[in-house]
Structure formats: C-alpha cells, structure tokens
Write a structure and sequence with these properties.
Elements lengths: L1 H16 L3 H19 L4 H28 L11 H30 L4 H25 L3
Helix pairs in contact: 1-2, 1-5, 2-5, 3-4
Length: 144
C-alpha cells in the first residue's frame, strides 16, 4: 500500500509543479509504467518486448483521438449544431470507436505472442486501477 501511496504522491507533485502539458503527460506515463510493473510480474524479456508494443499502441490511439478532435470537435459549435452536423459528428465518433477497437484487437494478438493470457488480463486490470487512482488523486488535489 505504501508503494501505491508513494506513486500517487509523486503524481500529485507532478500536477502541482509541472507547467507544461507534455511534461505532465510524460510524468503520468512514467507513473503508469511503474504502477503496471508493480501489479504484473513481467520478466526482463517480457518487459523488453511488451513496453515498445504498448507505447506504439498508445501512440496510435492518441493520434486517432487527436485527429478526431481536430477534424470534428473543434469544427462544431454546440449551440448552432445542425442535424446534419450532429449526424456527421456522431458517425465520426462511431468510426473512431471502431478504429480503437480494431487497434486493441490487433495489439491483443501481438501481446499473445509475447505474454501469457493471464498477464495480458492483469495489465488491463492494472490500467483500469491506475485510471481510477489517477481520477481519485486529481479530485482530491483540486480545490472545491
């Protein structure tokens, strides 16, 4: 438990002291890696093979989301949204979600070549736990 408290204290410090978005993101990524490594006992060989794939997947997912935001979200005004624009926005969101699903399936197949299924499941659970802890930490550190 102390290990997790330490990780989230570092996260809180990162949010308070870092002024640049990329620096915050890098810090969160480092904390995510530490959190997942603490939950999943990857061997040295598994670590060397897994993390480059994991980072590659996340880079692709980030690019998809960024492209969606640039092409759709920033171009629409919620107050003056027409039915045609609303339909285009929703369709684009469905396409984004499908592409995310396709990428996750593709990388799941790649992960299966280097990791046991149980470890893949533990990684997914650790990711979800990290997100919950991150949200809890942000909520508790923000002024109300």
């Amino acid at each position: 438990m102390k290990k997790y408290s330490y990780i989230f204290i570092l996260l809180w410090i990162a949010f308070q002291s870092e002024s640049q978005t990329n620096a915050k993101r890098d810090k969160i990524d480092q904390l995510r890696v530490a959190f997942i490594n603490s939950k999943v006992n990857l061997s040295n060989q598994e670590t060397q093979q897994f993390w480059p794939l994991y980072n590659e997947l996340n880079d692709k997912l980030d690019l998809l989301k960024k492209t969606y935001r640039i092409n759709f979200i920033k171009n629409f005004n919620a107050e003056s949204l027409t039915d045609k624009e609303a339909e285009a926005l929703l369709t684009a969101e469905f396409i984004l979600k499908q592409k995310e699903l396709d990428l996750n399936k593709e990388y799941y197949e790649k992960y299966k070549k280097i990791l046991p299924i149980k470890k893949i499941a533990l990684i997914k659970m650790a990711e979800n736990d990290f997100k919950k802890e991150l949200i809890k930490t942000i909520k508790s550190s923000s002024p109300e």
